Amino acid sequence: MNQPVPEEELTDPRAARRDKLRQIVEMGIDPWGSRFDDRDLIGDCVEKAASNTFVKEDGTSVELPDFADQDLNYKQWKADNGPGAENGPTVRVAGRIMLKRGQGKLFFLTIRDWTGDVQIFIGKKQVGDEFFELAKLFDNGDLVGAEGKLVHTNTGELTVFAEKLFFHTKMLDVPPEKHAGLTDPDLRQRMRYADLAFNDGPMKTFLDRTKIVKSIRSTLDDDGFCEVEGPTLHTVAGGAAARPFETHHNALDMKLTMRIALELHLKRLMVGGMERVYELGRVYRNEGLSPRHNPEFTMLEVYQAYGDYESMMDLTEQIISDAIVATGGDYKREFDGNTIDFTPPFKRETYASLFGKATGIDPADEAAVLELAGQLHINTSGKHPDVVRNEIFEEKVEDTLEGPIFVIDYPASICPLTKRKRDNPEIAERFELFILGMELANAYTELNDPDLQEELFTTQLDGQEDEDSMAKMDHDFVRALRHAMPPAGGLGIGIDRLVMLLTGQKSIRDVILFPVLRPQQ
Prior knowledge:
Elements lengths: L12 H14 L15 H9 L2 E3 L5 E3 L10 H8 L8 E14 L2 E8 L2 E8 H4 L1 H8 L6 E10 L5 E12 L15 H6 L1 H7 L3 H21 L3 E2 L5 E2 L11 E4 L4 E5 L4 H9 L4 E9 L11 E10 L3 H19 L4 E4 L2 E4 L5 E4 H9 L6 H10 L9 H13 L7 E7 L8 E2 L2 E12 L2 E8 L4 H12 L13 H7 L6 E7 H9 L18
Parallel strand pairs: 5-7, 8-12, 16-17
Antiparallel strand pairs: 1-2, 3-4, 3-6, 4-5, 6-7, 9-11, 10-11, 12-13, 13-21, 14-15, 17-19, 18-19, 19-20, 20-21
């Protein structure tokens, strides 16, 4: 049996909690709980009470007025309605104690589960001596349960009038201070369990994320797409221009990389005859941290045989529209002080047009482009003119794109996996979706000519650094294309950024449960 904590140590709140743990054990109660899965979710209890109709002991029902909105006296109402009028349905709830108050022969608790909060009334007369002694040992943060009538108090607050109490788990650490709370962003992300448990908002954000992901799968499944799982370990990192994480397989004595994209293996499946495929999965890029970048993030990639980039625009609008419906509310969302109107169809404008509007120069005027690059301190040495144009575009144009807007028809030379326009091979059938200067989606009419693909890979590899993801050609992918891949549209959407925009979170680390963090000092 645990020994009592010396009285002088009880000023330490953690020691005091351990002393209460000892007392709970001495009462013959398991402080780590047991099965209680027949409970009522608090959110369901709130819905039950929404109609304010409760069943009396004689089986008849009575309407409970909403005392929060009406100047009515609860005791008088009970007297007018006779014995048992205060009896609502019996419920069994469980959750974390967010607030404990009271003294003498009664306590009030506010407990929280992942669907909401409810008040618990604990009276010594109602629960009996043993349960009341147990209630004295409750602390904020403990997980407890209660069984009793679900009623309204005379102030109109929904309350469980406890008849039985249950103890599920003792919190041995100290919860965040009530008013200051857990506010430091780094600590919230590092201690996500405490952030979810004690802060208002994060639980809803991450449950909305689940709804968004579920909606995406539903949209694609209903449209005949097949979800697949590609490898996360690659012999050649491809499908994007990014630096990969490297690892080593001991048994085969070979270097492998974590995938930086999902693209090339999904296209191999289209060669094999899987005409509509998608994957929702993690990708890894050995790059920096920022409010919009995490080295490990979630990507959706979709490929549709016999489609093109316009098919992907339509699909993108449908995916986002359905996700908005799934999370509730209308098409207008607030983000960082801005209102985004997601009402489809989204605006579409060419890369060249947007470049000209933002810079005041014709993107085909190489001399003017080079002069502007110099003014922006962009290094042009050894770079293809289109690479220089794109660096200017990233600096001068992207931040002006409020969106949602599909930027279409990129320079072909910077799109090695994309089919060219038939009437203008200098232009690639590619779009990027921008919202408030943030790239959310990228899509192509996929290049399926194996000879041209090999040529473009070779051209792109010239001058690349060894550690760059595109510094090695994926010969097997080219071989796959020689087995005939159908014409297709392909789409990639950054799920974390989509969740940011739909839930109003300004940092990508606030929509990833466990983001990569710098070492704690």
